[in-house]
Design brief:
Blueprint lengths: L15 E5 L24 E2 L8 E11 L9 E15 L4 H8 L2 E5 L8 E5 L9 E10 L6 E15 L13 E7 L12 E5 L7
Antiparallel strand pairs: 1-2, 1-7, 3-4, 4-9, 5-6, 7-8, 8-9, 8-10
Length: 205
Amino acid sequence: MAENFSSSDVLVTAANILYAPKGTALPDETTVAWNDFDSWPSGWEHLGYTASPARTTYTYDVFELGVEQSTSPIIQRKTNERATTDIALSQFSADNLALVTDGTVTSTAAGASQKAYDKVVTGGSPYLPEYMFALEGYRPANTGGSEQPVRIFFYRGTIRLNGSIEFAKGAGTNIPAQITALADPTKAVGAQLMEAHIVTNPATS
């Protein structure tokens, strides 16, 4: 048996979190480098600094069918398939707060006897806006060790506040949030929830 040790496949990486309107093109794996947000397709927005590691989880429940003729289940089926990403946004901006609370931002410019400020209002709507989401990290190329992007995409998903906003004299104020993927029925069965790109080497020319 051949050995399967590859240090290039071991990730130690910061994370970038981006979102876009549904249907926005994904970044090209060949032309869009790690940390090169100006090259992402139009519509993608970066969510800024994060205070803790981004944690993406893929889970599902299992339905098992037992029959009288067997002591073991004879079939299993997935139910409640879920993919989530948990993040903590460091930038307490009106845009970030509105995004995770389904709010609306109104900005007032500074003027005579008027301070500049942003107002966020929310509450009362049962609907959750849907977006595309992306998590980006990097890995060393198999040849040469240059930083190559590793990306996870949710085609369709929601984002919500997922914890307390704390004002404290001994800690930064963060916005804890959870992104939840939803199935995209326009895609083939088996490819409706999420997509990952793991770039292993740069182009040869």
